[in-house]
Amino acid sequence: IVMVMPVGDYYKGGIKPVSSIVIDGFDRAAPHGVGHVKVAGNYAADMLPNTKAKNMGYPINLYLDAQTRTYVEEFGTSNFIAITNDNKYVTPDSPSILPSITNKTLMALAEDMGLTVERRPVRFDEISSFAELAACGTAVVITPVNHIIKGDEEIHVGPKDECGPTFMKLYKRVRGIQTGELEDIFGWCTDV
C-alpha cells in the first residue's frame, strides 16, 4: 500500500526565524538510552518542556546533553544544524540523537554545494560563533533559529527577520527536488 498526499509549506508565508529556549531540568533522552531511535517515548519526554516553551512564547526548545549540560543535543522534535563563518555545515554527533533523514539529505546537498560537513560534539558556548542556525526535520525541512535563551543568557545568531543565505539555498534545493522542479542527482525520488 502506498499513500500519497500533496502538502504545502509547513509555515504559511515562507520560512522565518524563530526563537528557542533551553528548559532546564528536562532531558530529551537518557544517556545510553534510545534517543537514537524513533520511538514514542522520545516524543513523550518532550511534551511537558515543549508545552512550557510554547507557553513562554518559544515555538521550539533546545536540549543539552543529559550528563554535562554543556553540549547541544537537538531541538524537541528536530535536529540541530549550523553554518559557520567559514562555510562549514555543523551538526552534533551524539548517540542520543535521532539520525534524521532530512539532516542526512541536507548534509549531502551541503557537500555538493562545496561546504565542509562536520558531524561532531557542539558545545553550547559555541552557538554564538555560528553564522546561521536552524532546526531540521521532515515536515518543515529547515526552521531558522535566530535567538536562544538559556537562563539569563541570550544568544542571537544570523539574520533577524529572514532565513540565512546558506540555509535558504539548501531549503530551496530540497523543496525543488521534492517537487520535481530540480533534478534529483542523488536518486532519492521514485516515480509512483
Would you mind describing this structure in some detail?
By secondary structure, this protein is of the alpha/beta class. Helices cover 22% and strands 25% of the residues. Strand 4 (79-83) and strand 5 form a beta hairpin. Helix 2 (101-112) crosses helix 3. The longest helix has 16 residues, at 40-55.
The CATH architecture designation is: Alpha-Beta Barrel
Shape: globular
CATH H-level superfamily:
D-amino Acid Aminotransferase, subunit A, domain 2
Largest sheet: 9 strands, mixed
Question: How large is the count of helical segments?
Answer: 3
Are there runs of 5+ residues with pLDDT below 50, and where?
none
Q: In sequence order, what are the helices and strands, one letter per element?
A: EHEEEEHEEEEH
Give me the secondary-structure category.
alpha/beta
Q: What share of the residues lie within helices?
A: 10-25%
Instruction: Give the termini separation.
Output: 12 Å
Oligomer: single chain
What is the strand tally? 9
